[in-house]
Amino acid sequence: MALTVGLRPLTRALLRPWARVPGAALGRPAAGSGDGVRCFGSPRVLVEPDPAAGVAVMKMRNPPVNSLSLEFLTELLISLEKLENDKTFRGIIITSDCPGIFSAGLDLLEMYGRDPAHCAEYWKAVQELWLRVYLSNLVVIGAINGISPAGGCLLSLSCDYRVLANNPKYAIGLNETLLGIIAPFWFKDVLVNTIGHRAAERALQLGFLFPPSDALQVGIVDQVVPEDQVQSTARSVMAQWLAIPDHARQLTKNLVRKPTADRLLQQRDADIQNFVRFISRDSIQKSLHVYLEKLKQKKG
Ligand SMILES: CCCCCCCCC/C=C/C(=O)SCCNC(=O)CCNC(=O)[C@H](O)C(C)(C)COP(=O)(O)OP(=O)(O)OC[C@H]1O[C@@H](n2cnc3c(N)ncnc32)[C@H](O)[C@@H]1OP(=O)(O)O
């Protein structure tokens, strides 16, 4: 899939040969690679390759909460494209480098007080990340080591398999209604595909954030394990998925997922326009303002 996001100077800058991350510049070998294989990535995305296993661990590190800003989305897209184009890799594990937080979802500051052109560019990048992860030829496993609301949940749902750390704080779900906004149809589709229609209609309307035990029960994650076993479990699961011949698995994945992705692909521009119209409404901007204030007050 070609990278189609219209992210002008930012993308061009990021497409320069991969910036070595500070740890790697100091010669820090990738975890699990005794042969000194180096980490690489970009400022917000640390990639730890394990070429022998054909696996790369992609760590999100956009502190404090891994909110999916335009820059962060761009870096994630570039990392994914790079890994997809490198025949060394057959699978990736997506996880977080921010303690206790997988991803706080879409960056509210990209949607609040912004002009329509910015909102359109942002939404295009959100669509693009979803399509790329959801339709990836690689096996994508989510090692969910923190809370994962809204866009963070969408990212998790787009993986082929989800392992969640067993910590009651690590809730996961599409909580958009709690913010006074709505989950777009393609967020909804992915949730319905995962947990079924009835469970999804309740979860979406009530903005449920499922703690691990409930998340497992409803099927929004596939496995819940002690926090210190999330990465090793993701690795074991990956080995199981990689035991299947790539072409058969990829064609099957496409067969199952393409109809859902096509619903967006057939109306991407209209979806962007709907988003911009919706998010620009005074009432929605007001809801976002109230929610952001609540987040601030929680601190003080
Ligand atoms: C028709 C078409 C229809 C289309 C209709 C539109 C569709 C939109 C779909 C939207 C999808 C989404 O993902 S919307 C995003 C949903 N996300 C959320 O609700 C999560 C909100 N955040 C939280 O609950 C918490 O921050 C949480 C993640 C648990 C971490 O709590 P902590 O106590 O550790 O940290 P906090 O102090 O709260 O946060 C640290 C700082 O990060 C900021 N922050 C937190 N989450 C943020 C976020 N998502 N975006 C930006 N900034 C965020 C806080 O304001 C703080 O900023 P400072 O005070 O400056 O330090």
What does this structure look like?
The protein is of the alpha/beta class and 300 residues long. The strands form 2 sheets. The chain has a 7-stranded mixed β-sheet with strand order 1-2-3-4-6-8-10, sandwiched between helices. A 3-stranded parallel β-sheet has the order 5-7-9. β3, α3 and β4 form a beta-alpha-beta unit. α4 crosses α11 and α6 crosses α7. It is globular, with a radius of gyration of 18 Å. The chain starts with 7 loop residues before the first helix and ends with a helix. The site of ligand 8Z2 has 28 residues, from β7, α11 and α12. One of its GO terms (cellular component) is mitochondrial matrix.
Summarize the model shown.
Its EC number is 5.3.3.8. The chain is an alpha/beta fold.
Please count the beta strands (DSSP E, at least 2 residues each).
Answer: 10
Largest sheet, if any? 7 strands, mixed
Q: Can you tell me the residue ranges where pLDDT is under 50 for at least 5 consecutive residues?
A: 1-34
- Given the structure, what is the number of helices? 12
Strand content: 5-15%
Helix content: 40-55%
**Structural class estimated from helices and strands:** alpha/beta
Name the bound molecules: ligand 8Z2
**Gyration radius over CA:** 18 Å
Head-to-tail CA distance between termini: 45 Å
How do the helices and strands follow one another from N- to C-terminus? Answer: HHEEEHEEHEEHEEHHHEHHHH
Strand order of the largest sheet: 1-2-3-4-6-8-10
Any idea what the shape is? Answer: globular
Average pLDDT confidence is 90
